[in-house]
Amino acid sequence: MTDNNTGNMALQGLKVIEMGQLIAGPFASKLLGEFGADVIKIEPPGVGDPLRKWRKIKDGTSLWWHVQSRNKRSLTLNLKEPEAQDIVRQLVTEADVLVENFRPGTLEGWGLGYEALKALNPRLIMLRISGYGQTGPYRDLPGFGVIGEAMGGLRHLSGYPGQAPVRVGISIGDSLSSLYGVIGVLLALQERQRSGEGQEIDVALYESVFAMMESLIPEYDAFGYIREPAGSALPGITPSNSYPCNDGSYVLIAGNGDSIYKRLMSLIGRDDLGNDPRLAQNDGRSEHAELIDGAIGEWTAQRGRDEVIEALKGARVPAGYPYTAADIVQDPHYLARRMIEQVQTSAGPLKVPGVLPKLSRTPGRIGTGGPQLGEHNTDILAGLGLSEEQVAGLRERGII
């Protein structure tokens, strides 16, 4: 829901400090902020988070910014300066969570590592997201999501055999790490209720991707089998593929449940395949995937996309087609479930994705779009007891 009321929210009263930039750390704190946490985003003075200038820009600010940084308060601090580091220490004394995604060792170099901050606030939970984690031989290497996707095994499986691996068109490695990070924060908050102590959460980009790799490793261990890219198919799960229509579009059909498969074969006039005992279960179908996919593709190729989709719906076979942004914002199901919201920004009203997950009693909300750089400096620093004159002095010295 879109409002400014945080009075009945799951994370009401939780204080979060966000340090870092771009995607993984900020995405994690965005999720916390959507459920009522007070998120203070620390940015370098003058330039701010580089995401402010990524992808499409309107009125000088990235449109992505209003998704990634909604509900947050912006505080500018030059963290290389001792006075700025002291402000962080003051904020930490009252914080519940600190989220950071610097290269390992960066915070320690500023005297802001976990052990130092824990001494100030033993209840502090620190979420640390990095390319390779806080330990191990690769810990000091720079790591972006794309590298995590490669090392985690995802890129090798993307695309078609014999062709260059392709990327998912979003920063999936970063976002997966953010989700694992939020899970870690919620687990640590639950444990803190028993122990009264915080802890450090170590999330690596490559590990978050690797955790999604299903049976990749046991298949290699048991059979020496190395899974390879397979285009639009899902090897070992049949039928599940994309199929051409006569209007140049494609439909995606997931007929891999045993009873669903029989209904699908009946629909396309291939009861011979539907009743073949060799194909009654998935392992047998997977041995004859080319035959089954060929039969389905022959049927779809004689029809338009809408006709195919309606027929499959009638037969209760899971099916769909690749949505574009235009399809999404017009889809009645998206709208009914409030997955398209609108926020007010400095550039005017803007459609943005809704909030997940959907809680029945304490739902999340979108209160504001992304803040202007340093928009909340005065309010946040006044909360630490600084006068307007002191804030002005910090600004003049380039501290904020």
Brief account:
It is built from 19 helices and 13 strands. The chain has 400 residues and is of the alpha/beta class. The protein folds into 2 domains: 261 residues, Rossmann fold (3-Layer(aba) Sandwich), CATH 3.40.50; 76 residues, formyl-coa transferase, domain 3, CATH 3.30.1540.10.
Folded structure, characterized:
- InterPro entries: CoA-transferase_III_domain, CoA-Trfase_fam_III, CoA-Trfase_III_dom3_sf, CoA-Trfase_III_dom_1_sf.
- It comes from Pseudomonas cuatrocienegasensis.
- This is Crotonobetainyl-CoA:carnitine CoA-transferase CaiB.
- With 400 residues, the chain is α/β, with parallel strands linked by helices.
- The chain has 2 domains: 15-211 and 333-396, Rossmann fold, CATH 3.40.50; 240-244 and 250-320, formyl-coa transferase, domain 3.
- The protein is 39% helix and 15% strand.
- It contains 19 helices and 13 strands.
- It has helices at 24-34, 65-68, 82-92, 106-109, 114-120, 145-151, 154-157, 172-195, 205-210, 216-223, 258-267, 271-274, 282-287, 289-300, 305-314, 325-330, 332-336, 377-383, 388-396; strands at 15-19, 38-43, 57-58, 61-62, 72-76, 97-100, 125-130, 200-204, 240-244, 250-254, 319-320, 340-345, 348-353.
- The strands form 4 sheets. It has a 6-stranded parallel beta sheet. Strands 9-10-11 form a 3-stranded antiparallel beta sheet, covered by helices on one side.
- Helix 1 (24-34) links the parallel strand 1 (15-19) and strand 2.
- It is elongated, with a radius of gyration of 25 Å.
